[in-house]
Amino acid sequence: MRVNQLTITQVRNLQNPSLNFSPRLNIFFGPNAAGKSSILESLYILGNGRSFRTTKHNNVITENNHDFTLFAKVESSDINHQLGFNRQRNGDTTIKLNSEPVNRLSTLAKLCPVQILSPEQYDLLVKGPGARRKQLDWGVFHVEHSVLEVWQKTNKILQHRNKLLKQKSGYSDVSVWDNQLVSLSEQVTQLRQAYCDKINPLFSQLCQQFLGQLDIKINLFPGWTDKHSIGLSAIYREQFEKDKKLGFTQSSIQKADLKFLIDGTKSAGDYLSRGQQKLLITAFKLAQLKVMQAYGQQAPVFLLDDIGAELDERHQNQLLDLLASQPNNQQIFITCVHLEPLKPLISHCDDLKLFHVEHGVVKEVAKDEIEVYEA
Ligand SMILES: Nc1ncnc2c1ncn2[C@@H]1O[C@H](COP(=O)(O)OP(=O)(O)OP(=O)(O)O)[C@@H](O)[C@H]1O
User: Fold this and answer.
1) Which residues sit in the known binding site?
2) DSSP state, 61?
3) Nearest ligand 1 atom, CA 60
4) Fold of 1-113+300-375
5) Rounded to the nearest whole angstrom, what is the distance from the C-alpha of residue 209 to the centroid of ligand 1?
6) From the CB of 64, is ligand 1 less than 6 Å away?
7) Is the distance from the beta carbon of residue 194 to the nearest atom of ligand 1 less than 6 Å?
8) Going by C-beta distance under 8 Å and a sequence separation of 6 or more, which residues neighbour residue 227?
9) Cα 306 to ligand 1 centroid, rounded to whole Å
């Protein structure tokens, strides 16, 4: 998938730019607080319906305005589409695809897969399991769209079961749902496990590149522990009284987690330095990108926010080499303050666009003009 054109209206400090992008590499450079990340935020919203920086949509709307609008021309599976996204301060959202209203965010996600690596995500290992599960499920969905229906059914039954548990219903009433719940939970787990099996060799290889000889792998925790291999049905039977007391199902796909383990046992979050954790997350995101390139319906747009901020020179160069070796159908958007470290990537790539951003004004700059800005 690629974004060919984007018009941004009333997003943060941006002065309503209308931008034509390169299908390969787009670099936004300029001083702090210029508006660079706000452009990536707009691209991210196109594919996810929400920001990666805030859970509050209203923060994205330019102060003293009522709404923001994004209008994009995108190419998805070789078909051109026009995509519009408008969000009002009162929460009303209108999404239009080729002038037709879109009611489901999953339609956006299928059409415009967007992956991001930003400083906000470097603490993924030490955050709660929810953030890791989100990353996992994002990857599973983009390799196997059918998982969405299974998730939705599973979550509906879980909600119903939890309601009965809260009402202190008896075992016979609650367990009516268990067979179906177990079967659906196993389907979700199988798809998650299949994704982990796909990503692990690519992830380990990238970790070796970034972190040296450490043996790091991803392990899926399905959401329950089955020490005696009794199966989920028996676990539900065993845990019923405790579930009833708590008022919810303790063992479920909603408790799943991705464990990043060193030598199969040590938790990477407890063992690695902050810097190493950042490299691990970078390797994980790149592995997700590679899985999608290999198995997904289409390659996602890859956003790299503040590329120079968190990595030392050697690792930044490794990342840039990896970006330079991405396949031709991989569209990349990068933000940075200074272009100097990116010069090898810039000279290597023929099909790139550079944009200078300052005080919310975005201006396309030719390769031979950049010295003026870097002076
Ligand atoms: N709702 C808003 N309305 C107007 N301006 C806003 C709004 N929200 C944030 N801003 C301002 O927009 C500017 C753009 O921030 P942004 O994070 O996009 O810049 P940046 O170029 O990525 O900066 P950095 O290099 O420091 O990460 C900031 O000055 C911020 O204070």
Assistant:
1) 30-37
2) B
3) 1
4) Rossmann fold (3.40.50)
5) 34
6) no
7) no
8) none
9) 13
Amino acid at 283: A
- Outline which parts of the chain fall under CATH 1.20.1050.90: 122-297
Quote the ligand 1 centre to 332 CA distance (angstroms): 21
Q: What is the CATH number of domain 122-297?
A: 1.20.1050.90
Residue 39 CA, ligand 1 centroid: distance in Å = 10
- With a 6 Å cutoff on the Cβ, whether 62 touches ligand 1 is yes
Report d(CA 353, CA 22) in Å as an integer.
6
Residue nearest to atom 24 of ligand 1 (CA): 32
SS3 260: strand
Residues making up the annotated binding site for ATP are: 30-37
Radius of gyration (C-alpha) of the chain in whole angstroms? 22
Tell the residue nearest (CA) to atom 23 of ligand 1. Answer: 33
Per-residue pLDDT of the chain (375 residues; tens, 9 = 90+): 999 999 999 999 999 999 999 999 999 999 999 999 999 999 999 999 999 999 999 999 999 999 999 999 999 988 999 999 999 999 999 999 999 999 999 999 999 999 999 988 888 999 899 999 999 999 999 999 999 999 999 999 999 999 999 999 999 999 999 999 999 999 999 999 999 999 999 999 999 988 988 899 999 999 999 999 999 999 999 999 999 999 999 999 999 999 999 999 999 999 998 889 989 999 999 999 999 989 877 889 999 998 877 778 888 888 888 888 888 889 999 999 999 889 888 988 889 999 999 999 999 999 888 888 876
Q: Which residues contact 334 (CB under 8 A, 6 or more apart)?
A: 25, 26, 27, 28, 304, 307, 323, 342
What residue's CA is closest to ligand 1, atom 30?
33
Question: Relative to the CA of 38, which ligand 1 atom is closest?
Answer: 18
* Helix ranges (DSSP H) in 212-352: 232-246, 268-271, 274-295, 313-324, 343-348
State whether the beta carbon of 32 lies less than 6 angstroms from ligand 1. Answer: yes
**Intervals of CATH 3.40.50.300 along the chain:** 1-113+300-375
